[in-house]
Automatic annotation (TrEMBL):
Annotated HTH merR-type domain residues: 1-73
Protein name per Swiss-Prot or TrEMBL: MerR HTH family regulatory protein
Gene3D superfamilies xrefs: 1.10.1660.10
Residue runs in coiled coils: 85-115
UniProt-recorded Gene Ontology molecular function terms: DNA binding; DNA-binding transcription factor activity
Length: 151
């Protein structure tokens, strides 16, 4: 006989809030639970496994729409490995693009930080001035000048 759990028990075992369980249910990420005679949602143990799958997938960078696709492939129960591998490859490409963008952002922030280190304490903060104007061009020019003139 299958054991059913109320929504609070599922949330507790899945380490999510009750609202999260309801939200996943509303997105059809979870099967509709049966209802008790008192109207309580009753879930089977698969709900906990599915929520853990969703949370792990989110930590890997998948959004809920992508997770729904993964779950649908899992439900089809046929050999979907190549399709899933393709989705993983797409996610890797996306993560690599984001990493590249973050590295560019880090470089720009470091250059802004350096501008502040060379500023006079009594002058207005040059970072605010650079942010107000087109700071990328000025930082790039400053960087080129420092390379040129540091010899």
């Amino acid at each position: 006989m299958q054991k059913f759990m109320k929504i609070g028990q599922v949330a507790n075992q899945s380490e999510v809030s009750v609202q999260t369980v309801r939200y996943y249910e509303s997105l059809n990420l979870l099967s509709k639970p049966i209802r008790s005679s008192a109207g309580y949602r009753l879930y089977n143990s698969d709900a906990v496994l599915r929520i853990r799958f969703i949370r792990r997938s989110q930590r890997l960078g998948f959004n809920l729409d992508e997770i729904k696709e993964l779950l649908d492939l899992k439900i089809q129960n046929s050999n979907q490995c190549s399709r899933i591998k393709s989705k993983i490859s797409g996610k890797l490409d996306e993560i690599r693009r984001k990493l590249s963008e973050l590295q560019k952002l880090e470089k720009t922030l470091l250059e802004l930080h350096e501008v502040c280190e060379t500023a006079n304490v009594t002058d207005p903060c040059p970072i605010l001035n650079l942010l107000e104007n087109n700071f990328e061009d000025r930082i790039n020019l400053r960087h080129k000048l420092s390379e040129c003139c540091s010899n």
